Structures are given as C-alpha cells and as structure tokens.
Amino acid sequence: MYTTERIDRDDFILSYRYYQSKNSEVIFLFHGFGQTKGLFETFVPSVLPYYSVIAVDLFFHGESTVNEKDNDPISINRWNALFNQIVEKHVINRFSLLSYSMGSRFVVTLLNAYAARINKIVLIAPDGFGNNFWFGVATSTKLTRSMFWLTMKQPWWILLIVRIFGATGLFNSITKRFIERNLKSGEDRRKIYASWIYFRELTISKDDFVRLICENKIDLMFFCGKEDQLVAKKSLQSICNGTNMLYVELDLAHHKMVQALEKHELIDFFISDRE
Fold it and tell me: Against a cut of 0.90, is the pTM above it?
C-alpha cells in the first residue's frame, strides 16, 4: 500500500507515491520521458521489505506540474529545495536513488547537496552528463528555443531527417521507430519541448560526478543497452574508469531498458547487504 503525496512550492507541484515500511532508509525512484511513478509498481515489492520507497513523478508527467508561463528553467538549487521538503517531511537521513533515462537528471544534480547522505545509486540508460549536441542546439539561446517550439508544432522536417538517417544507417530501425513514435502526437511533442526547455540546467559534469561518488564512497551501478543510440556510452565508460562501479550491458534499445528493473543484479545490488 502507498499514499500519494505532493510538495507545493512556488510554481511547482511535485507528486510522489510513498511506500512506507518498517525500515527508515529510503529508495527514491525517478522514471523517464513519457512515463509516471506507476512505472515502478512491480519493482517496489522486491525492495520494500528492506526499504521505504518514494516514487516521484517528473514535472510535466503524471501529477507533477510547473507553471509554464515561467520561462526560467528549473535550476539545480530550485530542484534541491523541492527535494529537501520531502526529506524533511519524512525525516529521511540516509537514502539511495534509482533512475531511468531523463530521470537521471534529477538524480545526479542532487549530489552536490546530498552526496554525504547517499548510499547507493543506480542509473539505467542515463541522461544528464552534459547536454548532447541536439539538446544544446535546441535549448541554448532564445532564438533556438523559438525554432525548437516551431519545429515541435510542425515536425515534418525532423521526421524527414530521421528517415534519411535511418536509410543511411546512422540510426538503427529501433531508434528510428522510437523517435517517430514520440513525435507522433501533439501532446507528446509539447511534453518533449517542455521537458527539454525546463530541465536544461539539470546536468553535472563527468568530473564532478566522479569526484563526488569517490569522495563519498557511494556504491554505483550503470545499466546500458547495446542497441541504445540515445545515450553516450563513451561518456559512461569514461566514468567507469574513474569509479569502482558495477556496469551491466543488456542487449536492448533505449525504450526497452526499463527491463533492467526485473534483473536480479539490480535487486541484489540493493538488498545483498541488508539480509
């Protein structure tokens, strides 16, 4: 059983499910684009005997909202202040974090403020270690953000480029279908625009990430997909070289990487030292 709760601060509403157990240590869960906190329903029972669990809706997803008239992006400080309200409300001392894809932006940007209180981090097909080329082009200036908005209203030329890239082999067929599917509906395109624009400052450099992980002796695990063309695996591999992390590669594309939630390696990572 869980309770659905929310933090209401300034122009933000942050909704989450709180699964309370007899254990005070908490795992925070963050989903990816186009999903909600309900993604973790089948995962939670596997860790609930050992942890309490908080599954969060990202902004523009589920029941978490932002006043879109505010054109300022969500800064790391604003995000940390919202997160701190959850921590104080539930009197949380130590905790662990798990994220998929875009949800990783919300995880890695907690490190500066909370690294000393974090035990374990799992990042599945993570986004957030710097901004990729297309993300940077679309969000870096007021002009490019306006062009990005017009593109999301009339996406035909992006779909044309995707088809050309697919025909030339620069995108595999799985990635091509994934992009086309997410650009199909007006609601999904609006959500892409809002997420890219408002989350653009939620990023951390690889060097800072490695330093904070090592200085605070945080246990770290990555899950990456062999067929995932949306995650910069070279960046993750360079992080591997700087940390004593666990790295698991699955024969999956990006949108299938949620299957990592079912893997015994993931469950063991969280509960092996708590039995």
Answer: no
